[in-house]
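hey can u check if this looks right to u? its 135 residues, i copy pasted from the old doc so theres a chance i mangled smth
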Amino acid sequence: MKALNYALKLLKFRSYSINGIKKKLKSKGFEENEIEEVVEKLKNYGYINELEDAINYVKIKCSKGWSRKKIQMGLMRKNYSKEIIKEALNYYDENVVIEKLRREISRKNLDRERAIKLLRSRGFEWELIKSILKI
């Protein structure tokens, strides 16, 4: 019961993947069988939805101007399955990213060469860089 209460407390502040919840509960010293039971309950209650969490991650990172590659790496670091990552990346909105990056480049007053360096270092492909800079 303490494990469930702790997990609910964590989920009150932000969403977690199944692996994230398991790691937190394990670090608090809960038994493996108790952790599995809590995760099952949370899934049944609808408090853990990995696909929804991954989609939210993609949308948030798009609004920050992240590249598809960087977002994919972030999802992999969070231990999402390949299927969930693939599905979540369908929500990658290139138009949002392009507008965000255009504003950033304009605000920083970067010349074309520096803008290209910046975008390449962030993992953007050449075709997207061309569309961002209108080359």
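The radius of gyration is 19 Å.
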